[in-house]
Specification:
Strand order of the largest sheet: 1-4
Largest sheet: 2 strands, antiparallel
Number of domains: 2
Radius of gyration: 26 Å
Helix content: 25-40%
Structural class: alpha+beta
């Protein structure tokens, strides 16, 4: 008995849709697994700050004109940013706070031993 072409097409559509949904979920689950396996902040306690790259000051266009964007995205306008540094690798909040605390220890506290 020959299978109904419409039924086969429907089954194929269901299988392909299921595969597309699974493929869309895999990167997120892989990312979560990587985050779960990441080192704890304490393991970085004696490391130096991560290398960073300087982003030069400059101007860029922000927002959109017309009806394409949301209300808070209009109108399109130029934005000028000062130069800033960006870490080359991901850094946890805990590690960044530790580095900031260690940097503060390098500077004497002018208020030490007295009230503000």
């Amino acid at each position: 008995m020959e299978p109904d072409r419409r039924a086969v097409a429907h089954l194929l559509l269901v299988v392909l849709t299921s595969l597309a949904i699974l493929a869309d979920c895999l990167p997120a689950s892989a990312q979560l697994d990587r985050l779960r396996k990441s080192k704890k902040d304490g393991q970085f306690a004696h490391t130096e700050p991560a290398p960073s790259a300087m982003i030069p000051a400059g101007e860029f266009w922000m927002g959109v004109d017309g009806l394409q964007g949301l209300d808070d995205e209009r109108p399109r306008h130029p934005v000028l940013l000062n130069a800033y540094a960006m870490d080359l690798y991901e850094v946890t909040v805990g590690v960044r706070q530790l580095w900031n605390w260690r940097a503060l220890q390098l500077w004497p506290n002018p208020h030490a031993g007295g009230a503000l």
